[in-house]
Amino acid sequence: MKKLLLALTLMASTCMSAFASTPVDHSKTYTFRTDTVYIQRDGQKIFGIAYIPEGQNEKWPLVIYAHGIGSNHTAGQPYAEAFAKKGYVAYTFDFCGSSPRSKSTGNTNDMTIFTEKQDLTAIIATLKSKPYVDAERTYLLGISLGGLVSSITAASMPDAIRNLALVYPALCAPDDARKNYNPDGTKKDPNARIMGGEDYNKAMLQFDPFEHIGNYQKPVFIVHGTADRLVPITYSEKAITVFPNARLEKIEGAGHGFRGEPLEKAIQLITAQLAEWEK
Predict the structure, then answer these.
(1) 272 phi and psi, to 5 degrees?
(2) Residue 87 CA from chain centroid, whole number
């Protein structure tokens, strides 16, 4: 019996230590694999791709990429590949009902920033349980509307998120909705072309993100182009006065939707910031 108990104890110890937290060597370039990872949320199925550094029984820090409105997981590929090569698990996904190109379930007419917050919350909980993820080193990277969603999600569960990175976060979205809709939910101009469905816009009419994001008190890093017409940089300038611990890096002359040199610069800046946060 004593031999059996000893064997069981050794087995349990081995299982618990099978995956070990892995320090990231930022001078090294890691190889990685990709896995399709589906996540369930209230009957919805969220499609995503995990970029996982190659290693034996290692637990890596996690970066979750949240895309903007009308976009999908493919927009996150350049970021995810760069992070995986530096020793991070990166996850890109499609918000439910985010666009006709979404591989997740859900209707675009039902999507709001609050359904997207539910998606992201489910993703965080699920990925933290993966054996190759170091749950204590979970980072969010939100792009445009995904930046707004990441901000309010982090503010609602600050202990779950180590740090927050944002690229031209669409903190202007509620103000945009109020420009196009009356307080009673009717359109100011019935013929106007408006971004997002009615539920998306109406859900934000009484919402001010700046009343919430300050609840996230850990370091925040924001990258924003000075020539952004869709999301004016003034919103990020205001954000760094509301977040208790935030820094804004401006990319001169860059607009919304980084491509080419601005995209490479943003990836470089965020990768360097992750390295600082990992110290």
Answers:
(1) -65, -40
(2) 18
Nearest to 224 by CA among 237, 213, 211, 212: 237
Q: Which residues, listed in sequence order, are joined to residue 39 by a DSSP beta bridge?
A: 46
pLDDT of residue 190: 85
- In terms of phi and psi (left: phi > 0; alpha: psi -120 to 50; beta: otherwise), the region of 82 is alpha
pTM of this prediction exceeds 0.70: yes
CB atoms within 10 A of CB 109: 11
| Amino acid identity at 200 | Y
Region of 246 (left: φ > 0; alpha: ψ -120 to 50; beta: rest) is beta
Say if strands 44-53 and 32-41 run parallel, antiparallel, or are unpaired. antiparallel
Q: At 210, which helix (H) or strand (E)?
A: none
Cα 265 from chain centroid (whole Å): 19
Contact present, 138 and 64 (Cβ < 8 Å): yes
Q: What is the pLDDT of residue 38?
A: 98
Please give the single-letter amino acid code of residue 150. S
**Banded model confidence at residue 200, pLDDT cuts 50, 70, 90:** very high
Is residue 256 within 8 Å of 229, Cβ to Cβ?
Answer: yes
8 A C-beta contact, residue 196 and residue 256? no
Q: What angle do CA 97, 127, 141 make, to 5 degrees?
A: 65
| Token pair in block for residue 156 | 């609602």
pLDDT of residue 32 exceeding 50, the answer is: yes
Both tokens of residue 48? 């995503």
The Cα 153–Cα 269 span in angstroms is 23
Over residues 242-274, the pLDDT tens digits come to 999 999 999 999 999 999 999 999 999 999 999
Listed in sequence order, the residues at least 6 apart from 4 whose beta carbon sits closer than 8 Å to its beta carbon are none
